[in-house]
Design a protein that fits this description.
Elements: H1 7-11, E1 19-25, E2 32-38, E3 41-48, H2 56-71, E4 89-91, E5 94-100, H3 114-134, H4 172-188, H5 194-213, E6 224-227, E7 236-239, E8 242-246, E9 253-256, H6 257-268, H7 278-292, H8 296-312, H9 315-323, H10 332-344, H11 346-354
Antiparallel strand pairs: 1-2, 2-3, 3-5, 4-5, 6-9, 7-8
Helix pairs in contact: 3-7, 4-5, 5-10, 6-8, 7-11, 8-11
């Protein structure tokens, strides 16, 4: 098995028995996960591999948060403590965590009824409201030119406040330069293939769109709070029709809450052709606003900021051409088409979130 975890050394730190089988779980893009079967049961073993979120202090914070959420009845899968009471095991300089195995499956928006979309929005509202109860009060917002808000907390005070860092939206001049660089990379790629053709088309299209809307760069973000940070179908497990566990809390941090709501909807409810299922978005957003106490103006501002973020974002192409990492390629056709459709249907998208 590639990147096989050191099972012997790890399991000696837990009361989990001896390993019988260990199989990689393929869904994660940043960290590594394994379906582990031992003489004492089934577990999910997580290797915190992504350097941005692999600090043991940050992982332990996530574990404390999920345990507190579990105590409130939020569906999560808290990490299991080892013999020393710690939930993070460091072996060979790498951080691991052991979780109970949750039988379940992922469901995207096309697989959800309108009622289940309402339940999804309400669940995210409960997550945001519950995090406000169990996490420390966040620090005053300060505007800085960064898109990341506390992705990995490493302060010495384990439960100290995470400062909220909210930017004013991507700088279009930087985006224009990135588009030129990516176009040059596409031209140099040999042999050229269908992905190169689509990438070139979308880059030229996006440059034209950005030129048309360059004056719509949003101001600083709205109200902030603790958020999951990466709420999407692969991080939510269902048992039957009910959510069983929200997983992968690596991006836990203080950010604009309504933006997480919009960002999640743009992943759950995107169709293969790059449109959003707006009736389902409406049901989801109404339930979220009711549960989280979010105002229509918060959602309107969040729609604008996430739209602008998508208009200026090329992470999938950067992975492909800068890293040679093609794992996100299947998402690119729908995601890149969504930006174009969203721009054209901007008012209808806003109405779905606030109507």
């Amino acid at each position: 098995m590639p990147h096989a975890p050191p099972l012997g050394a790890l399991l000696r730190q837990y009361s989990a028995g001896s390993a019988l089988a260990c199989d990689p779980v393929d869904e994660g893009l940043l960290n590594r996960g394994y379906r582990l079967r031992t003489t004492r049961g089934r577990y999910f073993l997580k290797h915190h591999f992504d350097p941005e979120t692999a600090a043991p202090e940050a992982i332990a914070r996530q574990h404390r948060a999920t345990q507190r959420l579990a105590d409130l009845g939020v569906p999560v899968a808290p990490a299991l403590p080892g013999h020393d009471g710690r939930t993070v095991a460091v072996v060979g300089g790498h951080a691991y965590a052991l979780h109970p195995w949750i039988d379940g499956r992922h469901r995207n928006g096309a697989q959800l009824t309108t009622g289940q979309c309402e339940r999804l929005g309400a669940l995210l509202g409960v997550v945001h409201a519950s995090l406000e109860r169990v996490m420390p009060t966040h620090a005053r917002v300060r505007a800085e030119p960064t898109r990341s808000a506390c992705p990995a907390v490493t302060d010495t005070d384990a439960d100290g406040a995470c400062p909220a860092v909210v930017d004013a939206g991507a700088d279009p001049d930087t985006t224009f330069a990135l588009i030129d660089d990516l176009l040059a990379r596409v031209r140099r790629h040999r042999p050229a293939d269908s992905f190169d053709e689509l990438a070139r088309h979308r880059l030229l299209e996006r440059r034209e769109l950005l030129e048309q809307h360059v004056g719509r760069r949003p101001p600083h973000g709205g109200p902030v709070g603790w958020v999951h940070g990466d709420f999407h179908p692969f991080n939510l497990l269902y048992q039957g029709d009910a959510p069983a566990a929200i997983v992968d809390w690596d991006r836990l941090g203080v950010k604009p809450r309504a933006e997480e709501t919009v960002r999640a909807a743009a992943i759950f409810f995107v169709r293969p052709a790059g449109t959003l299922d707006l009736p389902k978005v409406r049901a989801y957003a109404r339930a979220y606003r009711r549960t989280a106490g979010a105002t229509p103006s918060e959602l309107t501002a969040a729609v604008h900021r996430v739209w602008w973020e998508r208009l200026n974002d090329f992470w999938m192409l950067r992975w492909h051409y800068e890293r040679g990492d093609t794992r996100a390629d299947p998402q690119f056709p729908a995601a890149s088409a969504l930006v174009v459709w969203w721009t054209r249907e901007y008012d209808a998208v806003c109405d779905a979130f606030v109507g």
